[in-house]
Amino acid sequence: MSVAHGIRKLGVLGAGQMGTGIALVAALRAKVPVLVYDRSPEQVTKGLSLMDKLLAKDVAKGRITNEQAKEARDRVTVVSGDLGVRGFRDVDMVVEAVSENLSLKEAIFASFAAELRPDAILATNTSSISITKIAAAAVPDNTNAASEAGKKSAGRVVGLHFFNPVPVMKLVELISALQTTQETLDRARAFAVACGKEVTTSKDVPGFVSNALLMPFINEAIMCLEKGTATREDIDTTLKLGMNHPMGPLQLADFIGLDTCLAIQQTLYEGTRDSKYRPSILLERMVDAGWYGKKSGKGFYEYD
Ligand code: CAA
Fold first, then answer.
1. Ligand 1 near 163 CB (within 6 A)
2. For atom 2 of ligand 1, which residue has the closest CA?
3. What is the ipTM of this complex?
4. Is 219 a catalytic residue?
5. Nearest alpha carbon, ligand 1 atom 30
6. What average pLDDT does this structure show over 64-71?
7. What InterPro entries does UniProt report for this protein, alphabetically (predicted)?
8. pTM for this model (two decimals)
9. Residue 111 annotated in active site
10. Could you tell me where the DSSP H helices lie in the chain?
11. 302 flagged as catalytic
12. Among 213, 205, 214, 298, which residue's Cα sits nearest to residue 257?
């Protein structure tokens, strides 16, 4: 029996590529009103223009009508400034899509727990950080995590991992923390399906299934480059034409963001203590240099 997600209003924290994409599929496919918050006004402007561009393209390609694009756009409100998570007080679910930083996410989930309705689902789009740790942060300071109140607060936290570009990639990875309730999982899954996604589930291990497999692959490609085994073009072309990957691994790393790849690899390495996950020195140095890939104009390749 399919479960109703019951989301009448969604909150999205972060108006980057991921947050904007999540807001778009929620408004267009699941047809729910969405409030997106980002503390940076520049990010809000960028997010809105990306959304307008993607909707206009769908109209131009005849996938949706002008009317449907307008309705989707009208469902989305993007705000910035000092409001913070207080703006999410009336949402049924919030998806956090900020950068990969545990202490930042812990602070956010503590304020979600304090400010949002007690029955709101608190989802994180983290690519690798422990959902169980994030859920623990949603237990108020003066509450025993094993008490009914503690279990209730942490039980609504779930991992809902979208892939970039969100409107194009068909998958959502659903991750249960130790504390997540079955009801939270069922509703989060139903919501992802309403957004047009197929859902796989993973245990709460570092990197889940997706990045426990993807990141060693990307790292090996970087080490091939570092050792001079082949040029960047030949490494990428080998995987594109030899294995039918849509992008080569170095191009994909630039696309994901080298800082994000490094943060995920560090989480994998620290979380497993397995040397197969140790990030390459070249990746570390490129991030030290501020070469973050496509978003900064330079990574393994150069971008306008
Ligand atoms: N946002 C939204 N849509 C985008 C986009 C973006 N940033 N970039 C491309 N697209 C759309 C295009 O508009 C186009 O849509 P239409 O079919 O409507 O025209 C479609 O994607 C194909 O684009 P292009 O024809 O320009 O280029 P392409 O065929 O090379 O495809 C791609 C681009 C979809 C990005 C493809 O190269 C691809 O699938 N690459 C792999 C992406 C991938 O692996 N993503 C997962 C990364 S891992 C992750 O996100 C999670 C994590 O935890 C790290």
1. yes
2. 165
3. 0.95
4. no
5. 246
6. 97
7. 3-OHacyl-CoA_DH, 3-OHacyl-CoA_DH_NAD-bd, 3HC_DH_C, 6-PGluconate_DH-like_C_sf, 6PGD_dom2, NAD(P)-bd_dom_sf
8. 0.95
9. no
10. 17-28, 41-60, 66-75, 102-115, 131-137, 148-154, 182-194, 208-227, 232-243, 249-256, 258-272, 281-288
11. no
12. 298
Instruction: Choose which residue among 52, 61, 63, 168 to substitute to test ligand 1 binding: the one with the highest number of ligand atoms within 8 A of its C-beta.
Output: 168
Active-site hit among 130, 153, 161, 280: 161
- The protein residue whose alpha carbon is closest to atom 44 in ligand 1 is 252
Cα 186 to Cα 197: distance, rounded to the nearest angstrom: 14
Strand partners, 35: 11, 77
With a cut of 90, say whether residue 82 has pLDDT above it: no
| Four-way CATH pick for 211-296: 3.40.1000.10, 1.25.40.10, 3.30.70.2190, 1.10.1040.10 | 1.10.1040.10
CATH tag for 10-202 (out of 3.90.850.10, 1.20.1250.20, 3.40.1160.10, 3.40.50.720):
3.40.50.720
Which tens digit of pLDDT belongs to each residue from 130-159? 999 999 999 998 999 999 999 999 999 999
Is the beta carbon of 164 within 6 A of some atom in ligand 1?
yes
pLDDT tens, residue by residue, 24-62: 999 999 999 999 999 999 999 999 999 999 999 999 999
